[in-house]
Amino acid sequence: MRAVDIIIKKRDHGELSREEIDFFVQGFTKGNIPDYQVSSWAMAVLLNGMTDQETTNLTLSMAHSGDILDLSSAVDLVVDKHSTGGVGDKTTLAVAPMVRACGLSVGKMSGRGLGFSGGTLDKMESIPGYRVDLSEDEFLKQLKELGLVLSGQSGDLAPADGKLYALRDVTGTVPSIPLIASSVMSKKIAAGAQAIVLDVKTGVGAFMRNLKDARYLAGLMVSIGELSGRKVIALISDMNQPLGFAVGNAVELREAIETLHGGGPADFREHCLVVSSHMLVLGKKAASMEEGRKMVEAAVAKGTAYEYFRKMVIAQGGDVTYVDQPEKLPTAKYIETVPAPRGGYLKGIHAQKIGNAAVELGAGRAKKGDPVDHAVGFEVIHKVGEKLAEGEPLFVVHANDPEKLAVAREQLLAAHTWSDEPCDPLPLFYDVIE
């Protein structure tokens, strides 16, 4: 078997066999197939696509390029939740303890922020001492004892994916939906979850800008899950405006803690209730969405969801006083409330522009390895469709540099667009793919 023949076959719209995909992925992972051939193959996939079976075979081959985590030694069933990324998406911080409080184990490996999309690990590291570098043995031990873990990737999971993504990033092949789907699902399968709820974002602040592409990606990932023996459901949710109010690290963590106490912005709270309910149904802890919702609402009202968050922070070495007293979390030197420059209805709140502004402020990173400032960020306190009077508070900037604050203020003002006529609010969810 030769790499060039596999490239030519895909170039000419052929369907690759499992053996051909295994040969190609293993050869690339071991360094036997050079980058230029893999780049050529990735472009052929971008232009000509893959069948569901091809994409599943690619996913499984990438998952088996490294370690496969066996969670069954710790618990009978683990349900994972994955978001394709967004602005203000601190959902995991609230959902994981909510679901655990309802009797379902959650073992989640999350990532750091890159570009305008925030990272779960960066938010948790606002808590002094919180460890995101658990070993595989530590991950399994905590999952068995507490039933709740939120850490970074342990072991050598799906190394082929990391190598392939680095090439896609510099060869213009990132937008290939089969390659996106196999990237996400290979890591989920390698991480050991038997059931997965996918939160696929769509809109100006998401990778999938339009609903058609989001549906295609969601359907493909659900199909991969089914063909590889996992239970998978995909929710398609809106990312045209930030989720909740807070955008940043410590500010988002505060908002998640507030939500675990039964407060928080209405849209974020509702989003968490829906995602948690789906996880409980998929994990067979609830017979219906209605039952799942009641269970989650009760866990929040009784304080057990918040208590599990505390236990997780303690278990992973974090100073829990920063959870009990969120005012101790990193706070910016300059906090400025910016008024609405005019009256009218909010027509749009451009999520990506706000995400990019957060990166420039220091809350995110433009490239891997960049440091983040946990204290800075925004509170975008209104939603599309709301009516405001001139001078009413529009958003709040948290900054540690007055020059960056001034730039961020203008960027956020430009991200808000107005109408004199009433505008419809945006939906939270568009579809469920099962």
Describe this structure in words.
- Helices cover 46% and strands 15% of the residues.
- The chain is of the alpha/beta class and 434 residues long.
- The protein has three domains: 47 residues, Transferase, Pyrimidine Nucleoside Phosphorylase, Chain C (Transferase, Pyrimidine Nucleoside Phosphorylase, Chain A, domain 3), CATH 1.20.970.10; 254 residues, Nucleoside phosphorylase/phosphoribosyltransferase catalytic domain (Pyrimidine Nucleoside Phosphorylase, Chain A, domain 2), CATH 3.40.1030.10; 90 residues, Aldehyde Oxidoreductase, domain 3 (Alpha-Beta Complex), CATH 3.90.1170.
- It has a four-stranded mixed sheet, sandwiched between helices. It has a four-stranded antiparallel sheet with strand order 6-9-11-7. A three-stranded antiparallel sheet has the order 10-8-12.
- The longest helix is centred in the middle third of the chain and has 17 residues.
- It starts with a helix and ends with a strand.
- The model has no long low-confidence stretch (mean pLDDT 94).
Topology overview:
Elements: H1 3-11, H2 18-30, H3 35-48, H4 52-63, E1 79-83, H5 91-101, E2 106-109, H6 120-124, H7 136-145, E3 148-151, H8 159-171, H9 177-190, E4 195-202, H10 211-227, E5 231-238, E6 246-248, H11 250-260, H12 266-282, H13 289-302, H14 304-315, H15 321-324, E7 334-339, E8 344-349, H16 351-361, E9 377-380, E10 387-388, E11 393-399, H17 402-415, E12 416-419, E13 429-433
Parallel strand pairs: 1-4, 2-3, 4-5
Antiparallel strand pairs: 5-13, 6-9, 7-11, 8-10, 8-12, 9-11
Helix pairs in contact: 1-3, 2-4, 3-8, 4-9, 4-10, 5-11, 5-12, 5-14, 9-10, 12-13, 16-17
